[in-house]
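Handout, tutorial session.
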Amino acid sequence: MLGALAFGWGGVTATAASAAPDAFVSQLSNEVIDAVKADKAIQAGDVGRIRALVDSKVMPNVNLQRMVVKSVGPPWRGASPEQQKRLTEEFKTYLINTYAGALTQVKDQTVRVRPLRGAADATELVVGTDIVSKGEPIQLDYRLEKAGDAWKIYDFNVLGLWATDSFRSQFARDLSAGGVDALIARLTEKNKGVSAPAKN
């Protein structure tokens, strides 16, 4: 669920994109919750529908390349353009597969945005939110950057752990053992495993 809320918001209108960063996060986070609650296919676990939603509505609001670079670390700079292209493609699919399933867990949650800290003219800042449901609220923070007149996400923090740090830790073994090609191969294998139809 947390991953879904981290990335799960509907299409960005011009008004939403140019809004203050805290208003942007609040509006779009609540939009996706409402959309998921209204979609019985997503609630039932329709994988194709979930992936399509994430790919078309979520990913345009993410600075994917910056997220890949932060997740891979220094080895990115030594990769060829073709390797960078393939790695970005597989990372995108991995990201969608990793978090799409969490959308099925959205039930009665709402998002409460904490008071914004930072200069009014900042081009990068953190927007903090609390996911409110039964039990204690769960902290979920976003790193945003200003891209023209719009805001984009390039990282998020659940319970104290930034996503790109988590990915870098996951990727380190393959990068150490076989470089970027090994990581591409591992991500490709994982993506195929998720995409494979279930066997009866």
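The second record follows below. Compare its token runs with those of the first.
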Amino acid sequence: MDKIAVLVPCYNESQTIEKVVRDHKSALPEASIYVYDNNSTDGTAEIAEKAGAIVRHEPRQGKGNVIRSMFRDIEADCYLMIDGDDTYPADNARQLCDLVLNKGVDMVVGDRLSSTYFTENKRMFHGMGNRLVRFLINKLFKSDIHDIMSGQRAFSRDFVKGFPILSGGFEIETEMTIHALDKNFVIREVPVLYRDRPDGSESKLNTFSDGFRVLRTIARLFEQYRPLAFFSIISIVLWVVALALFIPVFNEYLHTGLVPRFPTVIVSGVMGIMGMLLWICGVILDVVVKKHRQLYELMLNQIRQGKGN
């Protein structure tokens, strides 16, 4: 088992992958560097292998699918994930790994947004999107994370082997963050330098489609991890609408003794019942989620025992 494994998911990064591998070999000479090629057509895999990386291939397209294979295949005490586009210098690699190996941290996030991200990143709306995602997650999950979507992270073995990856694409970082918050893992952030891609290197992100997928992931995980809050919000909306429909009819009944708008009363009653049913669903699912957290803790104990053996 490696003490430190550097994980580099790659798709068409021929211009930068050699530098990324060499920089991290210099920063972490004892580490094994794994480059997982995701159907590149520009010779990325060959360049990485010549630079000294262990190259493997993932045929299922998408960063989430690559990370899933990496986490399943590789055994290490500390995992350092880094993008292959050379936007994250290797200067902080040792610091991130030391927090995992020596301080008991489960996930260390390289915080771009507190350093050079907003001056280096040239893509329109990316800064706004990062702020929006940060605001939503911190409000919905009652946290204080500065950089939700950073691609430079270090993980403990407990986190890696117990993380059920569901996302297939770039929303994987958001899923990692929410999972760590929900399961009470120890999280630390380290401000890191960020630099824009070199000329000729193209980003694989689509601002709007990938941004929508991230927002959809946040909504899905909010429903799964905090069902009582999720369904309570919907229930309150339905109850407010039901009352808004019912109160004018009820006032008219008090003054005239007549109910001339029965369809409105029926719609109001149906929406009130739907709100009650959804709230009950939230209560039931909340019990299920709490039981799942208990089972997850038992699974982590088994992972630790397996590491000791």
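Points raised in discussion: The chain has a mean pLDDT of 89.
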